């Protein structure tokens, strides 16, 4: 083996002056910058954010875009179909159509005309099936409501049963939903985080009592709790606010507690305490920022369920009282004339679905961005 | 294990007791009495009515009577239906609600699982994107909006299924589908995540390396292991269905508990409101208990962690 000893001349010292392998070539990113870059790459979340911004702008300015007020009733213009110049191909042409069938063609024609009060000059009929093949005759009637009523102005989303403008009312209702979104987020952040943080940080007997209290609240289904609260407080925006405040923060409190229990015994907290930091400072400067990612994710997921709750309560008549507009009450009103005037239901239903989808997609994106481990 | 169950049962009784107390006193604060619409009655008549419902006793006595009755399964007499016991009304109406709930749960989880499975197998393919998109829609669109769409298109426009009422199996189709949308979405998303995680684990790679074909691996090894965590979402799903039946039963005029509950709220019928609230709370707690126990039975690792 000795003859394999290589000659020392084969080795040359490495030139260390120009070595760049240890240098970090990319700028170092903080947790937030990194998350934000990931979020921006998520197409779905960006679309969700965009939709939410548009809906918010519309909720703020939409009601002022025409001259009809939220409560302007006028029975002469009730249940007008939607009409927008240039959007006729979308079905927003101000026409009502209906198909009538009968045993003979004449009878079907007659029924089709009768359907729209026999105002012949504004009705166009089209024979779908003349009944010669043994089936029932079918006639489709198209009725130009705006011409028949001699109406010059257009109702973009149509009008409801009392002649109130659906466009104005839908955007006013959107405001309610967005207010609820903001409220749910605020409650989660304030009550949930504080409760969970205090419970975990002080531990011991405090934690024990606070957790027993939560266990009782958790035992009562959220819905039942909210309904009971609203029964006591009379329906209205205030009672929904209070009901959400009571029921909305529990899951957040539990998550924050779990995280802080994990964090509070770690070295950086001990170091801070050794340097003389007070409890408040440790909670605010060290513990909460470390849980902030999770807090944001959880807040985002609680927003759609709060919006659903408000719409749901308004829908079953426990939310906003009748003259006020919320997407839930508008949808409920839409159900009453669903068979003949589906447009009354259509627009509030589309808007609330858009809000819910946008919040859910954005929440998914935020979760992927802040917590890559949880990525699906 | 028996000790654990016993402990949980005691917790359950305490929680139910607290909820019953809470609902009782909340009801006492409510505006309006069953007599608020009965100004025409003379004072003597009002006294007779109050006595009949036990409302003339002081509140602590009323509370005691209510609790004693509750322990015996007696929820009191309804205000709106003369002389009808709340227990009977609930028993009568629980059938349709249970049927809808169970149908929606079974159909929802099965379809959801299949969707999630397809997503995981064709990961990042067009089928995956389609089913993920559908799941987001199902999770986002409120059940009553979806019910409206179904009612208008399937019920009115095409006339395939009846729009409302409760007179046979075809009447259950639309409400069941409206209710099932949420479980489908949740189960699909959950299944996809779990399946992707399981499919990346070592034993799957081993099975593939030994030459088991793709579908054999998915169904024999993957699915079985992905199913365990699915049990955890069943609880929240069941609770969501209970909420859902409240609106869906009203939309489709199903004679169930939810429809009765909403009516009772509008009529100030406290005994029915209290009875239904307690029933909902009981089912909620019971479902959570069953799922906790099931979880321990199916996954031995959890039992070990609890030191049983």
Brief rundown of the structure:
The complex is a heterodimer of chains A (376) and B (308). With 376 residues, chain A is mostly helical.
Secondary structure: elements and pairs:
The complex is a heterodimer of chains A (376) and B (308).
Chain A lengths: L30 H11 L1 H19 L33 E8 L2 H11 L7 E7 L7 E8 H4 L17 H37 L1 H16 L2 H12 L3 H11 L2 H14 L3 H8 L4 H37 L11 H10 L6 H28 L6
Antiparallel strand pairs in A: 1-3, 2-3
Chain B lengths: L1 H28 L13 H10 L6 H13 L14 H36 L4 H15 L2 H15 L15 H27 L2 H8 L4 H38 L5 H11 L2 H29 L1 H6 L3
Helix pairs in contact in B: 1-3, 1-11, 4-5, 4-7, 4-9, 4-11, 5-7, 6-7, 6-9, 7-9, 8-9, 9-10, 9-11, 10-11
What report would you give on this structure?
The complex is a heterodimer of chains A (376) and B (308). By secondary structure, chain A is mainly α. Chain A has two domains: 81-149; 166-374, MetI-like (MetI-like fold, Orthogonal Bundle), CATH 1.10.3720. Chain A contains 13 helices and three strands, in the order ααβαββαααααααααα. Chain A has helices spanning 31-41, 43-61, 105-115, 145-148, 166-202, 204-219, 222-233, 237-247, 250-263, 267-274, 279-315, 327-336, 343-370; strands spanning 95-102, 123-129, 137-144. Chain A has a three-stranded antiparallel beta sheet. In chain A, strand 2 (123-129) and strand 3 (137-144) form a beta hairpin. Chain B has twelve helices and no strands. With 308 residues, chain B is mostly helical. The interface between A and B is large, with 37 and 42 residues.
């Amino acid at each position: 083996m000795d003859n394999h000893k290589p000659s020392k001349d084969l080795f040359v010292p490495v030139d260390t002056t120009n070595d760049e392998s240890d240098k970090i070539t990319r700028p170092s990113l903080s947790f937030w910058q990194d998350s934000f870059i990931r979020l921006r790459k998520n197409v779905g979340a960006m679309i969700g954010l965009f939709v939410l911004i548009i809906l918010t702008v519309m909720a703020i300015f939409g009601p002022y875009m025409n001259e009809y007020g939220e409560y302007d009733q006028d029975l002469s213009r009730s249940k007008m179909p939607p009409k927008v110049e240039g959007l006729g191909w979308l079905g927003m042409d101000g026409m009502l159509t209906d198909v009538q069938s009968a045993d003979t063609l004449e009878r079907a024609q007659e029924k089709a005309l009768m359907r729209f009060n026999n105002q012949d000059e504004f009705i166009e009929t089209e024979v779908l099936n003349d009944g010669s093949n043994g089936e029932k005759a079918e006639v489709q009637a198209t009725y130009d409501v705006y011409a028949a009523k001699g109406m010059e102005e257009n109702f973009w989303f149509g009008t409801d049963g009392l002649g109130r403008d659906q466009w104005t009312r839908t955007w006013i209702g959107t405001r309610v939903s967005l207010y609820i979104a903001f409220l749910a987020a605020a409650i989660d952040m304030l009550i949930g985080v504080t409760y969970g943080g205090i419970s975990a940080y002080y531990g011991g007997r405090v934690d024990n009592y606070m957790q027993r209290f939560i266990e009782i609240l958790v035992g009562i289904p959220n819905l039942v709790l909210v309904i009971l609260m609203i029964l006591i407080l009379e329906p209205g925006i205030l009672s929904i606010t209070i009901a959400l405040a009571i029921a909305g923060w529990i899951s957040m409190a539990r998550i924050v507690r779990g995280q802080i229990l994990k964090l509070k015994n770690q070295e950086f907290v001990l170091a801070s305490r050794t340097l003389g930091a007070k409890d408040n400072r440790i909670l605010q400067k060290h513990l909460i920022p470390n849980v902030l990612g999770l807090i944001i994710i959880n807040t985002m997921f609680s927003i759609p369920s709060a919006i659903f709750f408000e719409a749901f309560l308004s829908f079953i008549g426990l939310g906003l009282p009748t003259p006020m507009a919320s997407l839930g009450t508008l949808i409920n009103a839409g159900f009453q004339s669903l068979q003949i005037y589906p447009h009354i239901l259509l627009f509030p239903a589309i808007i609330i679905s858009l809000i819910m989808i946008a919040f859910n997609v954005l929440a998914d994106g935020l979760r992927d961005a802040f917590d890559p481990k949880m990525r699906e | 294990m028996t000790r654990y169950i016993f402990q949980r049962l005691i917790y359950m009784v305490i929680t139910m007791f607290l909820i019953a107390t809470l609902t009782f006193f909340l009801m006492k604060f409510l505006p309006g009495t069953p007599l608020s619409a009965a100004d025409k009655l003379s004072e003597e008549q009002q006294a007779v009515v109050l006595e009949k419902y036990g409302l003339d006793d002081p509140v602590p006595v009323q509370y005691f009577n209510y609790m004693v009755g509750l322990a015996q399964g007696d929820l009191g007499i309804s205000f709106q239906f003369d002389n009808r016991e709340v227990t009977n009304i609930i028993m009568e109406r629980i059938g349709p609600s249970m049927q809808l709930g169970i149908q929606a749960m079974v159909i929802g989880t099965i379809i959801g699982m299949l969707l999630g499975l397809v997503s995981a197998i064709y990961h990042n393919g067009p089928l995956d994107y389609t089913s993920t998109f559908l799941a987001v829609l199902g999770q986002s669109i409120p059940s009553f909006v979806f019910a409206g769409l179904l009612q208008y298109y399937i019920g009115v426009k095409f006339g395939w299924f009846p729009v409302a009422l409760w007179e046979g199996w075809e009447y259950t189709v639309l409400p069941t589908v409206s209710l099932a949308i949420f479980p489908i979405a949740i189960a699909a998303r959950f299944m996809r995540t779990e399946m992707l995680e399981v499919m990346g684990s070592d034993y799957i790679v081993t099975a593939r390396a030994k030459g088991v074909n793709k579908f054999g691996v998915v169904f024999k090894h993957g699915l079985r292991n992905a199913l365990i965590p699915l049990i955890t979402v069943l609880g929240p799903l069941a609770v969501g269905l209970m909420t859902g039946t409240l609106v869906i039963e009203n939309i489709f005029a199903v004679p169930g508990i939810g429809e009765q509950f909403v009516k009772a709220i509008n009529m100030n019928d406290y005994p029915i409101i209290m009875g239904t609230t307690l029933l909902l709370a009981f089912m909620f707690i019971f479902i959570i208990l069953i799922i906790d126990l099931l979880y321990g039975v199916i996954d031995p690792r959890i039992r070990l962690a609890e030191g049983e």
